[in-house]
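stage 2 :: seqdesign
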């Protein structure tokens, strides 16, 4: 499983993450605040192929965040973003 990107980088309420998967699996996205605390966790079942997941970030406060992506227990990617 490969995380291609997060759009947009400056988020108001909704964001989209593009995922490329060679097989079905479970994607876990952990959003951490600037102090390293988990602000949000998103779990999605991913099908084989390319897909775009919509992420509702409305419940986050304004600020800087890091989103860590995992497939099961395997770390995939870390993406930084700003929530307006």
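stage 2 :: out
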């Amino acid at each position: 499983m490969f995380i291609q990107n997060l759009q947009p980088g400056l988020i108001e309420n909704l964001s989209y993450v593009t995922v490329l998967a060679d097989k079905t699996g479970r994607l876990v996205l952990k959003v951490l605040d600037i102090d390293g605390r988990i602000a949000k966790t998103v779990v999605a079942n991913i099908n084989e192929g390319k897909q775009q997941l919509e992420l509702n970030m409305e419940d986050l406060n304004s600020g800087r965040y890091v989103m860590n992506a995992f497939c099961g227990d395997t770390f995939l990617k870390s993406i930084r973003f700003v929530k307006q």
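stage 3 :: structure notes
- The chain has one domain: 2-83.
- Residues 2-83 form a domain with the Immunoglobulin-like fold (CATH 2.60.40.1930).
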